[in-house]
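Entry 12.
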Amino acid sequence: MVKLRLMLAVSIAALAAPAAASLQFQEGLARDPDSGALLYREQHLLDHADGELRRRLVVYRCTDGTAFARKQVDYGDSSLAPAFSFEDVRLGYREGLRRAGDAGELWVRRGPQAAERSAPVAGGEALVADAGFDEFIRERWQPLLDGKPVPLQFAVPSRLDAYDFTVRRRGAGEVAGEPAEFFRLRLGGLLGWLAPHIDVAYGRDSRRLLRFEGLSNLRDDQGKDQLLARIDFPRPAGPAAPDQWQALSAEPLSACSVRGG
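Predicted 3D structure (tokens):
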């Protein structure tokens, strides 16, 4: 069960706060937590309609600018457990969550020659998947600030299941000069003391993700271990040109090293 930690990165790191503009862009910088060396970049496009976040597109780039992975998120059926698909061409790895109304199906393909595996996922209103964790934090903001442990079921496509977690406030401070609230995500029960945690920092006033620290949703170049990363989002999302969505959606993906450059 401890291995569950390897897939929890939720791409929590794939998070940003919605704002007024229809299409917005934000970049995250993933660094080695020990050396501070840049590992890769995340480029996020957030598409809004009627003031609500509808879609997210994330392109992952090596330090030389090569795009090697992409994720698309659709919040149409659920803001907390949105449909999503992720692909990393370095390893031929794919995973995601399909939705049809309230019904959900987790799926994974572990390599270019591997068959897809899938399974239905339950969880109801407590289910959280991928970047839906960002919305979960904002929806549970006051209980978290009150110091209450807030439970959730997090979907793990690689395991074709969802698992019990808790989120708890750790304290307050600053990140890059901005007042911040710090929260920790752990596996529920005794397993939470055995598996590594994930820490996130959100702006106290903006409620936007400022920093993610823990196992990312990317593996190393050999596909053996999840990358441990500190991902900073130094600037809020800003306006993006309408044609950027199509450009990033269609950009070819190529293998590269996340520790290169």
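Annotation: The chain has one domain: 2-250. The two ends are 35 Å apart (CA to CA).
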